[in-house]
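REQUEST FORM: STRUCTURE PREDICTION
Request ID: SP-0412
Submitted by: Lab K.M.
Chain count: 1
Length (residues): 150
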Amino acid sequence: MKLLGLDISDLKDGYCISTVTLSVLKTPGAYLIAVLPGVMVISYEPLLTSVEKITRAVTRLGYKIKRIVQQNTLTQILASMKTLKFKTNIKCSGCLARVSPILNEAIGEDNWEVDVKTPEKILTVVSDEVDESSIIFAINEAGFIADRLN
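STATUS: Completed
RESULT:
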């Protein structure tokens, strides 16, 4: 397996990200790892696909690839990412609708998720820039409680 990072212009919202993600995942041997600020990280099997096939899956949708990020740079980016987990009282889709705009602004739209199906209602944040106190403040601002898990 190899890593491929694509810096894709105009990849700004959830619709664009999901459209490009689905197109890339239809390429046999390509697997999405993460969408980071400015870079889509893809793992791929060179025996099944190529960089050209994966980039074609993006460009045929009308998106432009500004640059291909090298594997050693991707490894450094992924190593710098932190995963923080919080127990919350965000219980339902209505709660998610209330907290989403605040978390999107504080953390970034694709950098967090809440598992409302578990009793602990775990908020998982993946970022290299956000600190624990900013996340707790954002959750409190939306009217909810967050306690950091170890």
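NOTES: The mean pLDDT is 86.
Reviewed by: T.R.
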